[in-house]
Every structure is written in structure tokens, then in C-alpha cells.
Design goal:
Helices cover 32% and strands 14% of the residues. It is globular and about 70 Å long. The two termini are 33 Å apart.
Length: 430
């Protein structure tokens, strides 16, 4: 395996023709593939083979794509560096002493290293945009509900979306065209009765990558520049100035609620993870220790051996936040903060067509640097998690380099505003 990018390297051929015929695609290993091992980067699912395809995998095959393997990831998507995988870390193809980001680090690294033309990742709090920024590629987190989640092994249901990764904005948007749409297997792709059709039916995301930002208003979220690495801010501001030179109007925007976004995100995400991962019991599927004893002992032994340290940490914190006496103190307050964040974004989009921030506030850390300090790892998500809390779309596009390392610019769109967001991103790319 090159830089530990793939967990499983087996080719799945798609249809003979279609919009992705002749295109190779890597698939994150938390998306179910019929007859092909799907591990979520965890020892507890080391030998799990799904009996069906995720909807997005079916759509890839129908579109003629060749799936070249399942990519490495942080265990169950819990991490931002692809170092918590039970199968070892992935290295960043730009600098193999550094992390590729996560949790979709294997997918971004596959594209950056030329191992696949395109890739699918999943984004719960930045897990597509983070590695896209660190590896110098493009990553899209769609509006919640634009892409089916059926067949995605869940981390936090109310936050995560499947998203495409590619070398250019247009290629990445073309993959979004393939995977977006309603799905009878996924109720989250159904919308209120005022909509005549699913938004993807009336959209052409690849065609939107025309680079025309003349007259577009771009709001720079000043709150998310504070505390960012000076080299990142300098590269970001240069890219924003370039947008202005192409005809965009640049305005400053402040969202007071973002002060509470990271705390709210981790309470909600860990609570949902605690509930979702309760099913791994050593009985129904996945790892079983084979030890004898009562059910509680088997359950405890299986989870002790099957889960890594970061997953155990998040299960414990999530269980605590949901426990009697603490639910209102933590989980309910986090949901109140989430509503405030959504409201702040709605008000910001009354002033701007898209919002801009650095994707990540730091340059890619060196391997091993972040694992000893989980709090710093969580704070690294400050610029990406607000988007998931508000269920909005966002894209990370390369903005330039600092000290030879990639810096990503994040553009956030209003709900189902992917086309405007993609148009602005293609201008940054140009």
C-alpha cells in the first residue's frame, strides 16, 4: 500500500458507459460495498462484509466509474488526521512526515497521490474539507439531504453527509452531479411539500464551475480568522483579494454564535456516536472475542478489544452527556446553541451570497503531533463544524501554499446553494 492510503484494494467495475466511464474512484471505508470488506477503520469490523451497496456506490457503478478500493480513515470517522485507524496512519502525499487530515484522509490522499481520479468521503464536522485542504485538493460537503446516506455506517446521523473529492472544482462538482438526488431508502433526502422536486433534479453543478463572480458578494467571517496561523491568514487574504479583482464584492461578517460551535458540535456528535455504536456487542456482527461468560462480560470484552482509544473516549463523553441529570445541562444546551448558529447563518446570507473562511486554521501537523492532545485536535475543527451544525453546503478549494504546504479556502453557501458556492470556488481556482 502506498502511504497506507487503501484498506482494501479490490477493483469494482461499473457500467460500460455513463458520465464517469473511464474514471477511477476511491471510496471511503465507511460506505457499504456489496461483497467487499467495509471496516470503518476499526478492528471491531475488521472482517465485516456488507450484503448490499450504499446508494452512492450504486450510483457510481451505474455512472460507469471504476472503484479502485476502500480508503483508510479515522476509526468510525472520529479524528481529524487519519491516525486513529486500526490499520495505521495515512501519510500526506505532499509531505509524508505530515498528516493528510481526516477523517477522509485516505480519500483525499488517493486523489492527491494520483491513485484515483476522484474519491468519496464523508463529512461530519469537516471530514471532507479538512483533508482536502491539507492535501491540496477540492472537497465538497453538500447540504444535508442532498446526497443519500443509505449504506453509510453512521457516526452522527444529524450531521454527516457523503461528499466528493477531486483535483479540480469542475471534476468534483461532476461527481456531485452523479451522487446527488432523492432516495426512497433515505428519509433525509425528502423535503417539505413546497418544493416541486429534489434540488438536484434542477441543478447542474459541473456547469456552475464557470468562475463568474462578477457582482457576487463574498462575506469574510472575521470570527474565524482570530487565532488562525498567520501564514494561513495571509494566504487566505491573498485569495480573497483575487476574488475581489475578478469582480466580487468583499464584506466582513461576524457571527457571535460561532464562539460556542465547537463545544456544541462535540456534545451532539459524541452523544449520537454513543447511541449509534451501542450496536457493536460481539453478538450480531463484527468482532466477537469468543470468550465465555454472561452477556455483559462478552459485550465489555468485545468493545475493549475492538474499539480504539479515541472511539472509547467519545462514547464515554457522549454517554455522560445523555445520562440522567446531565441531558438538559449539556445535550439540550448544545441543541439550543445549534439553533442559534443556524439563525446567525441565515442573517449572514441576507448580506452575502457566499461566506469565506480558511478551511483549516493551521497547516498540516506532523504525524504524531496531535494525538497526545485531544483538545487541540478538537479545536482544529473550529472553522468547519459550524457548517454541519447548520446543515449547510461548503467547499474547500486550494488557495495557495505557505512554507510549501497547501492552504485551503472554505466557501459556505446557503441551503441548497451549491451552484453559487461552486461558481465562487472555481474563481478561486482560476
Amino acid at each position: 500500500m502506498s502511504a497506507n492510503i487503501f484498506i482494501t484494494e479490490e477493483t469494482i467495475d461499473g457500467a460500460d458507459d455513463g458520465p464517469l466511464a473511464g474514471t477511477t474512484v476511491a471510496v471511503k471505508d465507511n460506505l457499504s460495498t456489496d461483497g467487499l470488506r467495509t471496516t470503518c477503520g476499526s478492528a471491531i469490523l475488521d472482517e465485516y462484509v456488507p450484503p448490499y451497496d450504499a446508494t452512492v456506490v450504486e450510483l457510481l457503478k451505474d455512472a460507469g466509474a471504476t472503484i479502485v478500493g476502500k480508503t483508510n480513515m479515522d476509526e468510525f470517522g472520529m479524528g481529524g488526521t487519519t491516525e486513529t485507524s486500526a490499520f495505521g496512519p495515512t501519510k500526506n502525499p505532499v509531505d509524508e512526515e505530515r498528516v493528510p487530515g481526516g477523517s477522509s484522509g485516505g480519500s483525499a490522499a488517493a486523489v492527491a497521490a494520483g491513485k484515483a481520479d476522484l474519491a468519496l468521503g464523508t463529512d461530519t464536522g469537516g471530514s471532507v474539507r479538512n483533508p482536502a485542504a491539507f492535501c491540496g485538493v477540492v472537497g465538497i460537503k453538500p447540504t444535508y439531504g442532498l446526497v443519500s446516506r443509505y449504506g453509510l455506517i453512521a457516526y452522527a446521523n444529524s450531521l454527516e453527509q457523503v461528499g466528493p473529492i477531486g483535483s479540480t472544482v469542475e471534476e468534483t462538482a461532476a461527481l456531485l452531479d452523479v451522487i446527488a438526488g432523492a432516495d426512497e431508502h433515505d428519509a433525509t433526502t425528502r423535503f417539505d411539500q413546497t418544493m416541486d422536486a429534489h434540488p438536484a433534479e434542477n441543478s447542474d453543478y459541473a456547469a456552475a464551475a464557470d468562475g463568474d463572480v462578477d457582482g457576487m458578494t463574498v462575506g469574510v467571517i472575521t470570527d474565524l480568522l482570530d487565532g488562525a496561523d498567520d501564514r494561513v491568514v495571509e494566504t487566505f487574504e491573498a485569495a480573497v483579494s483575487d476574488l475581489e479583482s475578478q469582480g466580487a464584492e468583499i464584506v466582513e461578517v461576524s457571527l457571535d454564535s460561532l464562539e460556542h460551535a465547537v463545544q456544541a458540535y462535540y456534545v451532539i456528535a459524541m452523544s449520537e456516536a454513543s447511541s449509534n455504536l451501542a450496536r457493536y456487542d460481539g453478538v450480531r456482527y463484527g468482532l466477537s472475542t469468543g470468550k465465555e461468560g454472561n452477556w455483559n462480560d462478552v459485550y465489555a470484552d468485545t468493545r475493549e478489544e475492538g474499539f480504539g482509544a479515541e472511539v472509547k473516549r467519545r462514547i464515554l463523553l457522549g454517554t455522560y452527556a445523555l445520562s440522567a441529570g446531565y441531558h438538559d445541562k449539556y445535550y439540550k444546551k448544545a441543541q439550543d446553541a445549534r439553533a442559534w448558529i443556524k439563525q446567525d447563518f441565515d442573517e449572514a446570507f441576507a448580506e452575502a451570497d457566499v461566506l469565506a473562511t480558511p478551511t483549516m486554521p493551521v497547516l498540516p501537523p506532523k504525524l504524531g503531533e496531535s494525538l497526545s492532545d485531544p483538545l487541540q485536535l478538537y479545536l482544529m475543527d473550529a472553522n468547519t463544524v459550524p457548517v454541519n451544525l447548520a446543515n449547510l453546503p461548503a467547499i474547500s478549494v486550494p488557495a495557495g501554499e505557505a512554507d510549501g504546504l497547501p492552504v485551503g479556502l472554505q466557501l459556505i453557501g446557503p441551503k441548497f446553494g451549491e451552484e453559487t458556492m461552486i461558481r465562487a470556488a472555481s474563481a478561486v481556482e482560476n
